[in-house]
Amino acid sequence: MLFSGILAIALIVLLFQRIDYDEFVRQMRNFWEAGQLPWLLAWSLIYAVLQGLRFFLIFPNRANIWQHIGLNFCNHTVNILLPGRAGEAVRPTYLKRWWPDLHLKEIIGWTLFEKITEFSSMLIFVVGGGLIYFLPQIKLDQKIGPNALIFGVAFIAISILLCLKRLQVKDYFSKQKHFSDIAGPLGKKEKFAWAVLISTATWMANSLGILAVVGDPKAAFALLVSMTLAGAIPMLPAGLGAAQWAAVALAGIINLAESEALAYSSAIHLVWIFSRLIVGIPLMFFAWGWPESKKPPDVSTPQLDS
Predict the structure, then answer these.
(1) Which of 87, 200, 208, 219 could tie 121 with a disulfide, CB 3.0–4.6 Å?
(2) What is the pLDDT of residue 306?
(3) Which portions of the chain are predicted below pLDDT 70?
(4) Closest by alpha carbon to 210, among 199, 222, 196, 198?
């Protein structure tokens, strides 16, 4: 942990040696004075809530939807505080402590299933968005621009429609009396479709949050993809340093000065971290207890077959 913290600090120090510090400070002050950060915070919270909803639909058990949302915030909190993606162990740990008869193998299996759906949605979002925003700029052929836009929009639309067709949404919801009943009758294919749709919505939520700060859809898309991928490096707590380096490296492509790219990425990253910690820390250390969990919470959702 000490090594990863030193590495993150070193990356950030190296960044500040190559950018205009006064411009960086001015940009950060502008974010605060313009009131852009509250919108970013709101969309960041929606993003984390949607992730919790996704696992609730994938793995129905005695935890209710609010507990799954809380567990997702706790996952992020530990990933922020510790390196090595240690937060991935939080959800299985709590579920097993609350209900020892749940099978750890099953929890881990559905967690891997969730990662597959998340990767699938990333392909939809990144490939479709890349076609829409970047391929039209290639000057190889005058027909590439319009065709890329059409293909990008069509790719995203068809992917979403295929998921909706699989779910038969109108007939499906008409059979449910309560929201907590939704996860019960889902088969694996339906779970996959729901998870891909919700994962795509999480990408959209993050995009809208970044757009509220950046103001340019292309720059928001590029920053989201680069920071998300760079921030996933397991040896850095919260991806600090790596996400900023990725944004600065991308600055020339999206017509930003390096100091602007660093200001955008730093503000976005700090709000992302804050939005997770303000929920995760109170839950873990005061409500649910850590490392020793408290008595299992009162649950209204019955156990369902998964």
Answers:
(1) 200
(2) 42
(3) 1-24, 32, 60-61, 130-156, 158-186, 232-240, 291-306
(4) 222
Sequence-distant (6+) residues with CB within 8 A of 187 are: none
Q: How far apart are CA 139 and CA 116, in angstroms?
A: 35
Question: Helices marked H in 59-143 — which ranges?
Answer: 65-81, 90-98, 104-133
Cβ atoms of 92 and 84 within 8 Å: the answer is no
User: How many residues are present in the chain?
Assistant: 306
Question: From CA 273, how far away is CA 153, in angstroms rounded?
Answer: 32
What backbone phi and psi angles, to 5 degrees, belong to 73? -60, -40
Predicted local distance difference test score (pLDDT) of residue 222: 83
CB 92 within 8 A of CB 111: yes
d(CA 296, CA 60): 17
pLDDT on residue 7: 53
* Angle of helix 217-231 versus helix 188-214 axis, rounded to 10: 120
- Among the listed residues 242, 241, 247, the one whose alpha carbon sits nearest the alpha carbon of residue 262: 247
Residue 100's φ and ψ, nearest 5 degrees, are: -60, -20
State the pLDDT at residue 177.
47
- Alpha-helical (H) ranges within the chain are 2-16, 21-33, 37-58, 65-81, 90-98, 104-133, 144-167, 169-174, 188-214, 217-231, 242-250, 258-282
Give every CB contact of residue 84 below 8 A, 6+ residues apart in sequence. Answer: 4, 234, 235
Token duo for residue 6: 């030193």
Torsion sign, CA atoms 98, 102, 105, 107: negative
Residues 6+ apart with CB under 8 A from 55: 68, 71, 72, 91, 110, 111, 114
Contact 65, 180 (CB under 8 A): yes
